[in-house]
Predict the structure.
Amino acid sequence: MPRSHGRRAALVHPDAGAIDVLDVLHALADPTRMTIVRTLRADPERACGTFPVDVAPSTLTHHFRVLREAGVIRQREDGNRRWTTLRLEELDARFPRLLDTIVSAYDRQADSANT
């Protein structure tokens, strides 16, 4: 059976004013999603298949969807690639330094667990 070459579903991104703090906290409560966010803080835009995570592509797609629908990331399509960026300015405008605080706390916890 031939594979369908239809377009992918449109990417859903909430408006900055509609981003909910509880959705952001939920999205950041997963180690894989935190790896995605930490990676984007160091490298502002990446292709979806280039993140240092060890999960199946379908699972990675799920993690991107959770982050995107919470307003943490923005994704755009360019040909057959999907590029991901962190919505840091929008998040900081809505919840000043929230993301920095969460990432710093996560890093401190990871450091203390490794010592």
Residues 56 and 62 are 10 Å apart (CA to CA). The first strand starts at residue 45 and ends at 47. The radius of gyration is 15 Å.
